[in-house]
Amino acid sequence: MKSFFVILFLLSAVELEAWRPTTPFLGRLARSSPQKNGGAAQFETRYFRQRLDHFSFADLPDFNQRYLVGGADGRWAPPDPIFFYCGNEGDIEWFSDNTGFVWEIAPRFSALVVFAEHRYYGKSMPFGSKEEAYKDKKSLAYLTTEQALADFAVLLTDLKQNLSAVDSPVVLFGGSYGGMLAAWMRLKYPHIAIGALASSAPILQFEDIVPPETFYDIVSRNFEQESSSCFDYIKKSWDVLEARGKHHDGLVRLSRKFRLCKDLNNTEQLSDWLSSAYSYLGMVDYPYAANFIMPLPAFPIKQVCKRIDGYPDGSDIIDRIFAGASVFYNYTGTVDCFDLEDDPHGLSGWDWQACTEMVMPLSSSKDSSMFPSYNFDYSTYAKDCFTEYGVTPRPKWVSTEFGGHDINAVLKKFGSNIIFSNGLLDPWSGGGVLQNISDSIVALVTKQGAHHIDLRVSTKDDPKWLVKQRDIEVKIIKSWLSDYYQSRKSSF
């Protein structure tokens, strides 16, 4: 199976019988500086010895968890706050580089910044190496959200003790899966963190909490609003690709047309590659040029549709589709050939997570989607997970462990101090919290916002609404800290 965040969708225009992971939260991630004017954030890389299993007393080997420490321009001293980023499904340095907001605001609060790497990703590998950690279901059994949150809690507790900072309040940050972890950690460990900014965190994308068609419908809506003809060309292209692949030497011809490094084994591989591009574009349709998932221009969907629509009438639809995909995969013009199995940032652990507890059903509607229609079929999903890993998914576990059903009533009664930020261009916003739940659990929703854009580094090209959103987030965080320090004073 390909790596990355699983979208349960096999892009065959004839039959849809199985699923494969085609679109992650983040994808093929490019390095970029989190600071203004090209300066890199200054941090130290450290390691913390973690238990492999926090929930048993079995005699198991420990492992080294990597974390980054910096911020505050050297002015931090207890009880100044700690800003803690909950690491996602990949290398923590990459997340640090692409979360400039945390680094930028830390000096205002004299805050220490900590970016903690998620177990089984980057250099935080149990059993000594990725090969051993990913060996089989026995070695992968400790790759769970519960274990990762416990890692964060133990690391923070130990770090505060060693720094004589037991009174320093902790504010959690996270985007995408990291945003989900930040929200869940605030709920599970309220004594460790006073609040959480959860950006683009689809905590409701489980079971039947939100319609499974939402993700692909939002991606499709973004393209259709840009150009109805672009939408139509993409929608028609799947049947054409399937038919071309059945011709004599059809797969070889398609491989040459799309400049692939290896010849296709089937058209589904190409469909997956294209659907990933469109889905990522839906996530990162930023109003400025960015080097996040890929080096992309400002408003990349507009540029893709310009390429697709720009051919004369009667042109081959496959030429249009390749031109559009090239904006995403080769905007710089430096790629000689495309490797469909490339995983440069080591995100393959998500396949295991999606086959165990992170079951996020996604479908594609016939009328609203530009993708082939598909209804999520759990039995097929479970069968393929068992074939790949020898495990059966637990589709109800996340909502059992963290909640999700009747979220308004539950969080209003039991939760506090969480910001859920979402941009409606982001297809993951369909599984996010989009309404205020209480005075202290607020939803910041922006019509033109893309995937955790608020956590990215500020630029001169930031629209006014984004500047305002970040100002609101800073104001809310200030209020959390003010309440905390005031309560500490009154207790003495």
From TrEMBL:
Q: Which N-terminal residues, if any, form the signal peptide?
A: 1-18
Q: Which InterPro entries match?
A: AB_hydrolase_fold, Peptidase_S28, Ser_carbopepase_S28_SKS
What Gene3D superfamilies does the record point to?
A: alpha/beta hydrolase (3.40.50.1820), Serine carboxypeptidase S28, SKS domain (1.20.120.980)
Key words of the record: Glycoprotein, Hydrolase, Protease, Signal
Q: Which domain of life is it from?
A: Eukaryota
GO molecular-function annotation terms? dipeptidyl-peptidase activity; serine-type exopeptidase activity
The record, for Pfam families, names:
Peptidase_S28
State what protein this is by name. Answer: Lysosomal Pro-X carboxypeptidase
The source organism is: Vanilla planifolia
